[in-house]
Amino acid sequence: MQVHFTRVSTPSSFRAGAAAGVEPAADGRGITVAAGASGSWTGPWVAPAFGIEELVASWNADAPPGALVEVEVQGRSPGHETRWYALGRWTYADDRRRRTSVPGQADADAAVEVDTLVARTPLRAYRLRVTLTAAAAPPTLRLLAAAASAGRADGEIASLPGAACGVELGVPAYAQSVHAGRYPELGGGGEAWCSPTSTAMVLAYWGSGPAPPDYAWVDPGCPDPWVVHAARHTFDHAYGGTGNWAFNIAYAAHFGLDAFVTRLRSLREAERFVGERIPLVASIAAAAGELDGFPLARGTAGHLVVVTGFAADGSPIVNDPAAESNATVRRIYDRRQFERAWIGGSGGAVYVISPPGKALPPSDGSW
Predict the structure, then answer these.
(1) What is residue 175's predicted lDDT score, i.e. its pLDDT?
(2) Mean per-residue pLDDT, 107-124
(3) Where is the Peptidase C39-like domain (predicted)?
(4) Is pLDDT larger for residue 26 or for residue 181?
(5) Is the dihedral of CA 292, 297, 298, 304 positive or negative?
(6) CB–CB of 45/127 below 8 Å?
(7) 51 and 133: one domain?
(8) By residue range, what is the domain housing residue 29?
(9) 190 and 283, same domain (yes or no)
């Protein structure tokens, strides 16, 4: 599998990009627009050394009530440029018109599957465009990035254990299952909240997330109300669920963290993050019987978990929100089975969430 991750919104690219109605943020960290105005910024063409089959964008932004952030992508192949595809319209506020993916985008070049651009034939380059729309207070974009990939792994995957064996991070354990049947308007209820529950665990690990006044609206009898808050503020009103990868990233970034989606190629790469004390939210898929000890006995086509460490033999230690209670969230999975479920299931998709300035491990292009 080939992966190319790019932070499109570097200071130099912000200066070089095409902009209309956009201005530098007052603190110098990003771009914004004037109150009541709208503006767009178009990034440079990015050309990985391979044909792009899939692309997922990430953004970190401050979006006060009424403000909107819309991210689009355009692809290019020899002699041809695609149309612009919307990868998401986002605001932190609970606004069904504004926090939504955009369905119905498919043509001969590509299709958008909720948060992911899937090319019909490999693209040679892409560029991103962001449009900021302000209400009384303007939005500010701090990060715009994308992970382009090609060649998902098939069959058996087995990396050898690395340096993080025996390291386990103290990530709080939250179970989505304790919310079963609650707030069904948010994607069918808590039993479907694997993504926001995983995001909430990582936020808590970093000592971040919503404060009690933020989730005062949650039923007082509901456990872990911050998980309900995450579900509400990651809910994609077009998709009808809380599993939009980009929206979970934007939610985490709302609390001052740096966050992005990328794809890793093996657990050896995941170990590098754990070695730097950074947990990862990983997207997996497993049929019945393919992952020993998996709480979803019937299997799943898509599920989010938190990789919190590695046992002495290299087996991944995982906080699996599908567990029946917080006390049973911690799991140790077979390394080969988990790697197959993760790399084979989602192409190694992860949320990387960490405080600003936190050093990431050395990379060869995946982050």
Answers:
(1) 98
(2) 98
(3) 169-322
(4) 181
(5) negative
(6) yes
(7) yes
(8) 2-150
(9) yes
